[in-house]
Amino acid sequence: MTPITGYEDRDDPQEPVGALAEFYRAFNGRDLALMECNWDSSDEASMDNPLGAIRRGWNEIRKVYERIFSIKATVKVEFYDYAIHRFSDTFLAVGRERGTLNTQDASLDLKIRTSRWYRMIDGRWRQVHHHGSIEDADLLARYQAMVR
Question: d(Cα 85, Cα 104) in Å, to the nearest integer?
């Protein structure tokens, strides 16, 4: 499958690939308003990512993105080697992310196992859960140090 980068021409958030492209466009562009459109705004949303801790509800999830978007670094990721499992009003995307984190002093190649679960809400797909993990302990420690 073609990697999803957020720079796709086709980004209809009513289609699973479009909803994923919207997420990566928001993330890579540090667009918190677009990120909020992509996520379910209820307290049912949850995220467990490499920065640690489980966050529940958009207000807590938002804080994670605010922290990532505020660091003095460039972070770019793409979703690849994935499968989309679509059900009636939900879909699950399971795959890998690769990318880079660059600061003035260091560069880090990111490799993250990722799953994203979306539900159709008000006529568009909204993310209700994200889980990301970095298998390499050294890479995880370096990523956490650079983002914190």
Answer: 40
Please report the sign of the dihedral spanned by the C-alpha atoms of residue 35, residue 38, residue 39, residue 40: positive
pLDDT of 1 reads: 80
Q: Residue 10 — very low, low, confident or very high, per pLDDT cuts 50/70/90?
A: low
Q: Nearest-CA neighbor of 25 among 45, 4, 39, 41?
A: 4
Tokens of 43: 């307290």
CA angle 87-125-60, nearest 5°? 115
Q: Can you point out the beta strands (E) in the chain?
A: 46-48, 54-56, 74-86, 90-102, 107-121, 124-133
Query: 114: which strand partners?
Result: 95, 132
Q: Is the pTM of this model over 0.90?
A: yes
Q: Taken in order 42, 45, 49, 55, is the CA torsion positive or negative?
A: positive
